[in-house]
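User: Could you walk me through two proteins back to back? I'd like the raw sequence and the structure tokens for each, with a short line separating them so I can tell where one ends and the next begins.

Assistant: Of course. Protein one, sequence then structure:
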Amino acid sequence: MIEIGVSGFTDHPDILSPRGGLAEYAQTFPVVEVDSTAYGIRKQSVMIGWRGLVPEGFRFIIKATNLMTQHQTADRATLIQEFALFADSIAPLIETEQLATILFQFPPRFGATARNVRYLAWIRELMPTLPIAVEFRNPSWFETGMRDSTLELLADSRMSNVAVDEPQTTGGSIPLVPETFGDTLFVRLHGRNRAGWASGERSERTNYDYSDDELREIATACAGVAQNVCYIFNNNAGHAAARNAQRLQELLGVEFNGLAPKQMSLF
């Protein structure tokens, strides 16, 4: 099975009207990545509200908070509480089997060290049964001689490796590694804007429009790796994400069943 979606369910003018939101987004794609949760835990009522706006088969990728991914520092007791509150908040999506995975996107300083290996193991202790996908942003995890160990570590912890497409810069990029544990390969596409990526400017880092050849290249690399492949487009800065996602769907000849019904305008 192939799923295709976009990071965020707002600000996609190619598929949404000016006031469009999740309900309208679900008319086009069967999965969404929610990145707002990185900045704070949402209440259960919010998750229930989201659940009520989408069809039964729609799925959510929920980003772990910045405390959980060590973008921010906290003591052990605070972290334990954060994990518990987060797990409680997503319970409504777990109940209806609409949680695709929890995305742990680690910061560039989270390198392949013994301490960080222990932290990954601790995450699994705190979340023993929940689906977890890991995106590294420090290239040390996939350097020569480390790649196999990294993939083995994630498999032992029952965590999915996120295959990342991003600009390849000297010493600071993650290569596309289409290998993972489990039945689903999650692929995140950030674009290939090297200058914008190096600048660090949020408005430019993901400002990129994929060509058909590039989309075919990524799809070919990820084909047959796992039973399911879930592509998430995060090249949002220039509003190309939704358009590229729809184009990949066309190139792959995929149809999504069970989408929300299109609403007919009365005017």
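----
Protein two, same layout:
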Amino acid sequence: MKKIPVIIDCDPGTDDAFAIALAKASGRLDIRALTPVSGNVGLEHTAPNALALNDYLALGVPVGKGADRPMIKERVINLATHGENGLGGVELPAPRCTFEEDHAWDVIYREAVAQKGELEIAAIGPLTNIAITLLKYPDIKPLIKRITMMGGAWGVGNSTPYAEFNIWIDPHACDVVFKSGIPITMVGLDATRQTFFTAEEMDRLLASDCAVSPLLRGIWEYTRAQKAREGRESGIILHDALAIAAIYCPEVIHTEPYFATCEVRGSLTEGQTVVDLPNRWKKEPNVDVAMSADKEKLYALLQEMVAFYQN
């Protein structure tokens, strides 16, 4: 079976680490590069984390540094969710590989040309790198087969009442992407929240030792402790893993085509992905929006991931 060429644009990030590990284990994705961006933590952490994950997971792909701030608004960092180093305090071995000389947007363009229209992008962080690519290389648009993004919500947000974190961080970048004409799958909070894994499910998933246990268990234990400190239900949502899974296993989500836009100026709604569910605007759909997710299917894929790293 032919593998899907994909660039993972990421901000690792605890759930990014799970997602990248899943991508490698799938056997269905031909990972062409990692392009880190500032998001969950600053680029000073996400870039070294991407480089370390490249080595730790034996990806052997180019890692091109991306944007260290949003396109227009001020940078916001969320240390509480992912820890100061972005990986929940897990320290990976020092990588032997080095960064590409080219920036993320140049790496993306290079790979898009090389893949002759077959390249897909997994955008599991803020969309800054992707927007810069589209603005610098407008001729890239027909060369990108699809962008699958973890971000947005057609219902309730998590950074504001209506905005999801990845979009709220850089709404102007999302606006550029939504207007690009490239096929887009939006895996937002409405779908990812349906894949909440309980502490018992996570303990069962990670019970057996595998090559990446120190990373995955370390992230899970950090998340468990954080939830306890906050008095919240113990468990985890692996948002980014669902987006990765949707690329090679589309049945893990159910999508419907809608016209969507991003609010870039609202004093109360900045970063909201406005999805025209009632079709009031009568505009051509530009985004395949994830309406629901299959938690059991995602869990089965994660079990396959663990088994992969046991071999």
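The first strand starts at residue 4 and ends at 10.

Let me know if you want the two compared in more detail.
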